[in-house]
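Before surveying the methods themselves, we first show a specimen of the format, giving the amino acid sequence and backbone structure tokens:

:::
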Amino acid sequence: MKHVYKYIIGIGLAGTLAGCSLEEHNPGGATAEVVFSTENGINALVNSAYVNFASQFYGREDILMLTEGGTDLWINIANSGYGRQMTKYEELVATTGQIRNTWNRLYEIVNYCNAGLERIVDVSFTNEEEKNARIGELSFLRAYAYWHLVEQYGDIDLRTEETKTAVLTAQRSPATAFYDLMLSDLDVAIANLPVQPIPATDQGRATKKAAYGLKARVALTRVAYESSTSEKDKYYKIASDAAQYVINNQAELQVSLYDTPEEVFRPANNKNNKEAMFFITHSTINSLNPRPNDPNRLHIWFKAKYSAKAGMVVDLPYGADRNSKSGSMCFMPTRHLLELYDEEMDRRYGDWFREEYYLNVNSYTWTADDLAAFEKPVSMAGKTTLNRGDLALLFTKKKVSGEKRNLPYALVDIDDTYDGDRVSTNARFNVHFPALMKHDDPDLPEANSQAGSKDVIVMRLAEMYLIAAEAETLMSGGNKTLAKDMVNVLRERAAVPGKESDMLITESDLDVDFLLEERGRELCGEHIRWFDLKRTGKLYSYVQAYNKDITTMQPYHVNRPIPQQFLDVITNPQEFGQNDGY
């Protein structure tokens, strides 16, 4: 959205119980009852419900660590300790700041939505369609915030009314109650949201396709909380129907797949992405962002160390390189993630991961220090010269045999980056790896800037094919032929030209492990992996099997701790209780 405003909305739950006030601005001393009795006031309130998703979550590293970290796909560069509470489950306790902040900000969103939904019915709008749209947005955003809350924290406090005064007791509600509310909210959202935002220039608002998509995602997750086959099938069916509605009505909903994986995250397509179903906006006008100067810094969090090596310097095409030493933090892929791809037939790897760096200065002659850094022969010092455009660095997922140290460029292969299934202890190599390019931002104000302006796609059409496929595969009497076809749509798109038939699967390939592998190949780095592993009951086992640098994880880590600040404020902390294990 172009502009976001925040006004007093009463005392928020997070503020009441955890010391974080929502009273950011109170124009002219007006009360909430006065401000939110008008169309402009309600519009401001709805805008406020979006703010934390941009300023606190999507574009920031904390939510990335909570949604992609601590899984089978990512580990800290050089096995560093930054963010280890989330990425490695080390020292994850009730006082961890990111856990408290996430709890507070999500409950703030819930309270904005509760306030708006309570008040909007009695407010007159010039345009009734706009009023309906705002009802839909508030319902969508409440469901989206509660999905995050219940998946991260488990059975917690379910609130459907605005918190206006201090509430000093809290009661837990079962996860199923949250999901009942979410699905009800999403039906309201579907009934009220337009295909295009109102006004049309306010890109980033929830629309009808987003509501269908979230309904599919929420229903698929709800399966995990049911024990009987009939109840599981009920929610598989809801998930499949919602996902297929989007797939079968792409023209009406104004969404479609790109022809190639590369186009999905091509920076030129970011601000008008035809595959995106819901995205969090960040403005190219810095002053309009909730957090000026670093609105979206996802682009720095998946980078391998490339500058000050073999003559390379930081530049915009290769992106910010903040890893001046091995202890700096970025997400490096696990060996497991890299080996999920067969790059000979699956172009998603080549389209979304960078292996090659070409010299971006006029010329370079190998120095003794750089030769030592890549364990190359000292005899090359002062002799082998690279010119602008020559391959300077190659960090590859392949195993390279033969005289790989004698090449004119620096080569780090998969056996240099990893010792078996773990990150190498060799500091010369463990900062060099194939780097995810999905969040690249070549439009930074200057090289090495953190001030990215790209929108963050948090739901896209490809996920609908995967949801429909999973639901039809795992539902009793589901249509496995349809499931196979859904997966093959994405795999055929992902095929290296000429390898389309090699990429196609059969019904016999379909099971939960294959589907999780396919989701990893398609959606890695898109804020969804932790949720996928939790809802399928695979979080602990997959981390144990595929991310052996995470050594302290326990089964209870499927939930985060309840923030201690919250427990310290309420009067019934023992009754409410801490989550198991903490």
User: Anything to note?
Assistant: Confidence is low (pLDDT under 50) at residues 2-27. The first strand starts at residue 74 and ends at 76.
